Amino acid sequence: MNTLQKPVGSGFTAASTAEDVIRGIDLNGQVAIVTGGASGLGLETVRVLRDAGAHVIVPARSPAKAATALAGLRVEIETLDLLDPASVDAFADRFLASGRALPLLINSAGVMASPLTRDTRGYESQFATNHLGHFQLTQRLWPALCQAQGARVISVSSRGHRYSSVVFDDLHFRHREYEPWLAYGQSKTANILFALELDQRGRSEGIRAFSLHPGSIVATELGRHLPAGTLEKLGVIDSQGRPILDPLRQLKTVSQGASTAVWCATSPKLAGLGGVYCENNDIAVLVDDATPRDPDGADEKGNYGVMAYAVDSEAAEQLWGVSEDLIGLQLRSLGF
Predict the structure, then answer these.
(1) Is the separation of the CB atoms in 265 and 29 below 8 Å?
(2) Which of 91, 100, 135, 302 supports an S-S bond with 248, CB 3.0-4.6 Å?
């Protein structure tokens, strides 16, 4: 049983914004890579990190589209397709060739509840994008993370991890019926397990890792596969199609939604800690599968907690090994 899931009393709430949590923090001279940084929560994350002085790199499948979205922000735009292993390697090689240390890696890009598609390897696309692409990217950037002598790697997960554990005997839905939310839940659980094992393996090199639930934010592209009727049934928009905002139900603005990733990346409250799942700008509590509570319900502070299977150290170690096999890459093969 994971015993790390204990709130630290951050002083922030479900309604706190990214600007609130980064106020007073100086990131001058620090480099940050933010995947998914050209839209939604990633874009807001980029903006506040840049305002705090960080040099931010935004890798994107379409650099031209990213340049339009990021107009006015002095950031570095690169090419990266998380579904293409060669693209991941090429981006990492270019960054490593620059000789820069990497104090902040925020893995924010993702897809949600998409129809069944597979990449060129035959891997289910939500698992491949949300987990495997970021797993490979982090592995390949390992020398730069070590060089920072105090790096943080942030994995943007979701309370949607409650939909599914990682089903190791059928990761890619080859033998079971595909259900978009089960696939999404599996990928989000994988994000949490990845952060747990990454922290275990990286802490001796000064690398700490965190995962988080940002909230439910309608004003992003993440829900593009969901029709308005579904969003209304989920209670995130009203009958007129307008977003419902209620931070205590995790229904947030983009700035509120980006806050927990920014808090995980920069808060001094997390110094010496790692491998934990966070929500509403604090470490989340552990929720046992047998806890008699509506799995979709939050407590009085808007917290859902994290399922025990998502912070299971044995599952985290197993996922790491399986992921290495799936991408054909191991840290030891890189000389680390």
Answers:
(1) no
(2) 302
Catalytic residue among 163, 184, 277, 304: 184
pTM of the model: 0.92
| CATH classification of the domain holding 246 | 3.40.50.720
Partners of 78 in beta bridges: 59
- Tell me the Ramachandran region of residue 14: left when phi exceeds 0, alpha when psi lies from -120 to 50, beta otherwise: alpha
Q: Is 316 part of a structural domain of the chain?
A: yes
Q: Is 10 within the bounds of a domain?
A: no
Terminal Cα-to-Cα distance of the chain (whole angstroms):
30
**Structural domain includes residue 280:** yes
Cβ pair 310, 165 in contact under 8 A:
yes
User: Any idea what DSSP says for residue 222?
Assistant: T
Distance from C-alpha of 213 to C-alpha of 94, rounded to nearest angstrom? 31
Structural domain count of the chain? 1
Cβ proximity of 320 and 14 under 8 Å:
no
Decide: helix, strand or coil at residue 268.
Answer: helix
* Beta-carbon count within 10 A of 23 CB: 10
pLDDT, one tens digit per residue, over 3-16 is 799 999 999 999 99
Q: CB–CB of 139/331 below 8 Å?
A: yes
175-179, 198-202, 226-230, 292-296: the lowest-pLDDT one: 292-296
pLDDT per position as a tens digit, 276-310: 999 999 999 998 765 434 445 678 888 999 999 99
Q: Is 309 a catalytic residue?
A: no
Burial class (CB in 10 A: 0-12, 13-18, 19+), 214: buried
Q: Residue 151 carries which DSSP code?
A: E
Distance (Å, whole) CA 283 – CA 239: 34
Instruction: Give Cβ neighbours of residue 109 (< 8 Å, ≥ 6 apart).
Output: 35, 36, 42, 82, 129, 133, 134
Within the chain, strands assigned E span 31-35, 55-60, 76-79, 104-107, 151-156, 207-213, 276-279, 282-283, 286-287, 306-307
